[in-house]
Amino acid sequence: MPRIPEPLRRLTRGLAVPVGSVLFAFVVGGLIVAGTGGDPVVAYQGLVCGGLGILCSGGENSALQISNTIIFVTPLLMAGVAVALPFRAGLFNIGAEGQYLAGAVACTAIGVKFSTLPAPILLPMVLLGGMAAGAFWAGIAGVLKATTGAHEVVTTIMLNYVAQWLVRYLIIGGPLQLQGGFSVSSPIGPGAQLATILPNDNHRILFGLPSSVYRIHVGLFIALAAVAVFAFLLWRTPLGYEIRAVGQSQRAARYAGVSVRRTIIVTMLIAGAFAGLAGAVQIAGVDHNLTDIYFSDTTGFDAIAVALLGLGSGVGIVLASILFGALHAGGSVMQADAGISSSLVLVLQALILFSIGANFLSAIKVRLPAIGRSPSTPPAAIAAAATATEATGAPPEKDTS
Amino acid sequence: MSEQVSGAPAVEMRGITKAWPGVIANNGVDLTVRAGEVHALVGENGAGKSTLMNILYGLIHPDAGEILINGTPARITGARDAIAHGIGMVHQHFMLIPVFSVGENVMLGREPVTGGAFYDHARARKEIEALTQRYGLALDPDARTGDLPVGLQQRVEIVKVLYRGANILILDEPTGVLTPQESIELFGVLRDLVKAGKTIIFISHKLREVLEISDRITVMRRGKVVGHLTTKETNEQEIATLMVGREVLLRVEKKPAEPGPVTFRVENLTASSDRGVPALRGVSFELRQGEILGIAGVEGNGQSELVEVLAGTRRATGGRVLLGDRDVTAFDARMERDSGIAHIPEDRRGTGLVLAYSIADNLVLGRQRTPAFSWHGMVLRISAIKAWAKRLVKEFDIRAGNIDVLARTLSGGNQQKIIVAREMGNRPRVLLAAQPTRGVDIGAIEFIHRRLVAERDEGTAVLLVSAELEEIRSLSDRIAVFYEGRIVSIEPADTPEERLGLLMTGGGSGTRTGAA
């Protein structure tokens, strides 16, 4: 028997779950397509084209596809961090969605209210405001966990609902609604908007299209920086050391002089800030106002899949974000080229999450013990709760909006 | 019960070899266990005892070698085969369901059934009673298992194995979790089992026990058998030397203490246990520089809580703790540590280490925010941590490939050395050592004992809490006996074991002789 070197074995073992989950999802997804009369090869070709800009058959512009994927990847990176960081402390932040919306609302409110301020002042204001709002939203769950022992899975799910309905209230008849009866807010001031990376010019032709169609914005760099900050925080700071210690053994953490409660709160605050930043960047970089698409937004839920698939590591989050970003962006091309409903993307995503939940959670059962004084929630229940939120939290919104 | 009585070999393992990536756990191991004997398998942690026994029990498949049971070659590919061959294993960590009754645990997987599908309580009880009476193992089949003391839980495991028809019983470190009294009871049970014709393989690294209970001994070191001994013809020193591979000091060599001024003063300290009942009922003592004060006592009399309060991980409900002139009663763990109180906690794996951390990371546990290892408490000084770790790994002989190895993968002795190194590495003023050698091998015990004495000689005030009376007596300069949350007496180091035992159980008249 040939001997495989230990580092390679460890790497293979580490990658087995995420890679296996993705393969599983694509195989089952392909069977579903074939079973419903479609051609899986054509479907996946469309998905790859729309996601990565390669293997296109319908004359799509590769650069535009990549740009669109990056638009999806950007918020996933930051929201993914917002789930991954609490994971390390043994906390399951299902509330990235609510924190993301809180960030988007704060960014919009500040950007509209102070729309006349110049960018050097207003841009930091909206981004920091978004972070503060996200931190506040997550902090509620953190404080509850640390003081009353209320389980963060339950509280963050509930806070998601509050945030979702709050967004609805604010732009349907609420204080942020644009005059004229539309379910949108006023646009944020130009000073609050993140610049696009390519010139926003209708006459300049880049990669065969006017450069203004490429909407990738500098938020991408903010997002990558956020992932870098996350990795640095986790592995290079005493705080990260303590967060990981709390996640591994609360008794050891206490022995080391770490306040477990304080660490739980701080972790949630930081995580919320990342998710809030994601929301703020999305408003400032892409939408520029709060619209009804936020009713059915699933970024914060997708972030759970990103964090799980990325195994809570910086590199993993980047790779998983690219995968999910490409899936989202590719769905419409698949629908156009192969005639397969883009809802297949949601099926694939759910399958990935399902198969990770089945594998990964058996692993974190050992590594991430229950927290605080609350009775421990079995990982399976957490998984079910997470998936249930994913499944039920968002779709009903679509029906009503 | 000796070799004359025992006849043909019950178990023969020949040339057993098993390699894991990087280590050869068993290298051509031969083991012969005669029917009707107690055969001790001794060796330090990591010597390959457990691997060998797991191979015999079918949990691990050897790369080479053969197994004969009662003279005929046996293919054991799983626990089911082992049970079919009459082999039973009592694991170190019990495999019992706490909420089940004793009867249900014993029957689990082989429940007697009535009416096609229903658990037959009556028959289960009868069978267990028959079994327990036959071997003199008093057990109430209806008791809830989780409510039983550890010694009785172990008895449930033994009965469970017997119920499955075992003739050859493997006991993996059976006394590791027992009190001295429970160990004595266990030995009685083992003797009865042998009388009834059972064969016992007893895995241990406690040499006194091995000498007391076994007929023959197989010694392993680094995956190989290094000696087959007959118990009657050997002694502790010979076994220890074989186990470790060199002469071992079983007695601690130390000079008389030269106590300095009082540096640590505990006055009328009270505290509650986790369940909220008083655990410390007014503890007072003084600790001088350069002395070891041993705390003797049956476990659960408040010693654990005392150490936790002093280390800052449990709150005092009354009294004072003074370090020099400073009142440190209300300090938390970090402040205690920063002010020079080091703490070797009794729970190594759950408290003293983060098992998923590397050796290097564990060596700064509790000091992650000190200026030595972080820049203003904001950024870890990775290179300083590495340098510190390399120094301690060398100085404290922590055996591992490198400092990035996870603590989880190390032997108990090396794990404990990490903690000892970390807590001694900074020249503490006071060292709280709780069960510092529990569950570690002889080599590590010898090493840790020597370091504790060296620490004392450097002028550290050492508080030693241990359930091993022998350890207390050989290391301490004075002995405080704990009973029901109080110090009933402070005795000189040469107090006879009998007197200490009496005081520990609430007897004797506590005179506070030897008090500072």
Shape of chain A: globular
> How much helix is in the residues of chain B?
25-40%
List the secondary-structure elements of chain A in sequence, H or E. HHHHHHEEHHHHHHHHH
Q: How many strands in all of chain A?
A: 2
Mean pLDDT of chain B: 88
CATH superfamily of the largest domain in chain B: P-loop containing nucleotide triphosphate hydrolases
The separation of the N and C termini of chain B measures 50 Å
Question: What does the model show?
Answer:
The complex is a heterodimer of chains A (401) and B (516). With 401 residues, chain A is an all-alpha fold. Chain A has one domain: Orthogonal Bundle (ABC transporter involved in vitamin B12 uptake, BtuC), CATH 1.10.3470. Chain A has helices at 6-35, 40-52, 62-88, 96-113, 119-147, 152-171, 219-236, 238-248, 250-255, 260-287, 299-309, 314-338, 343-367, 379-393, 395-400; strands spanning 205-206, 209-210. In chain A, strands 1-2 form a two-stranded antiparallel sheet. In chain A, strand 1 (205-206) and strand 2 form a beta hairpin. In chain A, helix 2 packs across helix 12, helix 3 (62-88) packs across helix 11 (299-309) and helix 6 runs parallel beside helix 14 (379-393). The longest helix of chain A has 30 residues, at 6-35. The model of chain A is unreliable at 364-401 (pLDDT under 50). In chain B, a hairpin with a 3-residue loop joins strand 19 (374-375) and strand 20. Chain B folds into two domains: 9-244, Rossmann fold (3-Layer(aba) Sandwich), CATH 3.40.50.300; 251-340 and 429-516, P-loop containing nucleotide triphosphate hydrolases (Rossmann fold, 3-Layer(aba) Sandwich), CATH 3.40.50.300. The model of chain B is unreliable at 1-6 and 512-516 (pLDDT under 50). Chain B has a six-stranded mixed sheet, with helices on both faces. Chain B is α/β, with parallel strands linked by helices. Chain B contains 17 helices and 24 strands. The longest helix of chain B has 16 residues, at 180-195. The termini of chain B are far apart. Chain B is globular. The chains are: A mainly alpha (401), B alpha/beta (516). The interface between A and B is medium-sized, with 22 and 34 residues.
